[in-house]
């Protein structure tokens, strides 16, 4: 955790987070597109490495890396395949980075802070473990909590690694696809004098299906709650 914190401080002090912006993406668009055409595998490797690092250290503005994926790979692979490939790269990279932060949190903070927190954490962990996959999947699907915050909380509560990876990989797919598709259409938006709306995921046509998926993920917990209420006292 100390190393991750130092890397974050170093990255911010060097101004790396300032490169994760619309202005830099558009200013460097010609150069980046040329790299994609001439050295596609190098670009993919750098893209994945940067995404993993940004996710691991919780670098602000990492959402622009997802958008950049659609921007870079859309023209090369087409409007249909481009966002799909960008989504796959982004979700895989984000899951790896999240898992690294999850490991660091669990190893560094788990035992000491949990012992000090006492019964409250024990009760919280017990309730979460009843449907850890459903709860975590819901938090990944809905834009209600910071991505890095969920990683920290999951490590603190001792969620199983398999559950964490599976819920994360599945849960972030819709959001990754939305922002990769947004990146794929950035040039069209700029030509019309518009800027990409980063709050697009809160629009009803996207948020309502996500709420439906989240409800399905929580059905086991909802059913247990209903059964507990129906039991005679």
UniProtKB/TrEMBL annotation:
TM region positions: 41-73, 80-104, 132-157, 164-186, 206-226
Subcellular location: Membrane
Ranges for domain VTT: 60-184
Transmembrane helix as UniProt keyword: yes
Pfam families: VTT_dom
Chief localisation class: membrane
Keywords recorded for this protein, A-Z: Membrane, Transmembrane, Transmembrane helix
Membrane topology reported for the UniProt record: Multi-pass membrane protein
Transcription is among the record's keywords: no
Protein name: VTT domain-containing protein
Organism: Candidatus Phycosocius spiralis
